[in-house]
Amino acid sequence: MEFVVNKRELVKGLGRVAGVADRKSAMPMLSNVLMEAEPMSGGVRLSATDLLLSVSSTVRAEVRKAGSVALSARHLFDSVKALPEGEVTVSVAQNFSTRIKGSKRRFDLVGMAGEDFPQLPDPGRTPLSQVPVDDLAELIAMTSFSMSTDDTRPHLSAALFEMQRDILRIVTTDGHRLSKAERAVQGLGASGASKLLIPAKGIHELKRLLDDLRAEKTAGGGAPLTIGVGAASSQGPVFFAREGVLLSSKLVDSAFPSYEQVIPTGTDRVARLSRLTLLDSLRAVSTVASDRSSGVKLAMSNNQVVVSSDNPDVGHAQDEIDAELTGKELTIGFNSKYLIDVLSALTTNDVQLELSGELDPGMVRPVERNDFIGVIMPMRI
Predict the structure, then answer these.
(1) pLDDT reading at 193 higher than 60
(2) Crossing angle of helices 336-345/275-285, nearest 10°?
(3) For the range 290-295, what are the long-range contacts, defined as Cβ-Cβ under 8 Å and sequence gap of 24 or more?
(4) Most exposed residue of 54, 232, 237, 254, measured as fewest CB within 10 angstroms of its CB?
């Protein structure tokens, strides 16, 4: 195999795939990147997998000789980055030793047969719905923070994608809080699947891909970007495809909680206030909160919210915020981190806290928008 490629293009392609390679796997091949060159394709396909996630990226190249090779993801990426700017020549010998040369600098890396690399999922005829990249990125930003970090609970360390009736909805929960965000997207029925439970690692890799695409869009201008989303069945895998890039993820084989039952159907106390003012207050007051609980109190009365925290080992902090209040007075405790996370994920100027009693879950909503609900369980403080 032999091809010539621009260094920047190769670095960008490797950057998209190298992070998926599993360096700690008992299977040495999974720590590699597969490079495949076909003269008729006009490019080189780079692929990596950890058997849960798979990603491929195609870079433009002058292919002089077809072939494939598997190389250490870390050493390949580091070697290419260390080359001078300009053209890079990659050539593979019969024993899979691979020479990577730029100008007068070269690296000779030990390779493995590309044929031994695990077979990657192929979308084939799977129908993919085109979803705006900006919308999907915003939905993930508004929900990914409330996924569980406990790998022993895979149904919570995941995000539920619901695609039906031209609505894309993402829901996450860790058992203490829940986030639900949605967007109207035309043509979602083509995906052939309505509910997909995608593991956290897949969500994080998807976010990286979307951030890259948005950065390229900002630099290059042009029409809004879309990404193909779909799965052949509810058993997966799910595919995310953009020209030159394909990400696939296995789905979580567990039942997601019935989240509708967690969302309060009615509240009798509402506080409307500035999102950034409340966020700043919580960050300040929580500096004295217990590291274990991060607990703060919200006392609501007389069109004012008093945010406070008491810690016998540190001291007391208090702040007062103007707010529009409806309903009876209430004092309720929350984990400040949960409130800070949801307020940081939103972008509206104002939010409203919808509450019932001091032991009932509270809701956070953006004012004058109905595309997001955050539910947080209270704390006894």
Answers:
(1) no
(2) 150
(3) 293/335, 293/379, 293/381, 294/335, 294/336, 294/337, 295/333, 295/334, 295/335, 295/336, 295/379, 295/381
(4) 254
Contact at 8 Å (CB) between 141 and 170? no
CB 69 within 8 A of CB 111: yes
Closest CA to 146 of 102, 176, 101: 176
Cα separation, 323 vs 278, whole angstroms: 10
pLDDT digits (tens, 9 = 90+) for 207-264: 999 999 988 877 666 677 999 999 877 788 999 999 899 999 999 999 999 999 999 9
Tell me the C-alpha distance between 338 and 9, whole Å.
40
How much is the pTM?
Answer: 0.91
What's the 3-state SS for 300-317?
Answer: EECCEEEEEEEECCCEEE
CB 159 within 8 A of CB 139: no
Q: Which CATH superfamily is domain 129-260 in?
A: DNA Polymerase III, subunit A, domain 2 (3.10.150.10)
Q: Tell me, what DSSP letter sits at residue 281? A: H
DSSP 57-92: EEEE-EEEE-EEEEEEHHHHHHHHHTSPSSEEEEEE
Task: Fill in the DSSP letter of residue 30.
Answer: G
Out of 117-121, 229-233, 260-264, 333-337, pick the least confident. 229-233
Please say whether the beta carbons of 303 and 272 come within 8 A: no
- Please count the CA atoms within 13 angstroms of the CA of 42 that sit on its side-chain side: 1
Burial 217-247 (b: 16+ CB within 10 A, else e): eeeeeeeebbbbbbbbeeebbbbbbbeebbb
CATH number given to 263-376: 3.10.150.10
Local confidence band at 47 (pLDDT 50, 70, 90 cut-offs): very high
- CB atoms under 10 Å from CB of 94, counted, come to 5
Confidence of residue 25 (pLDDT cuts 50, 70, 90): confident
Task: Let me know the angle formed at the C-alpha of 46 by 45 and 48, rounded to the nearest 5 degrees.
Answer: 140
Domains 2-116 and 263-376 belong to one CATH topology: yes
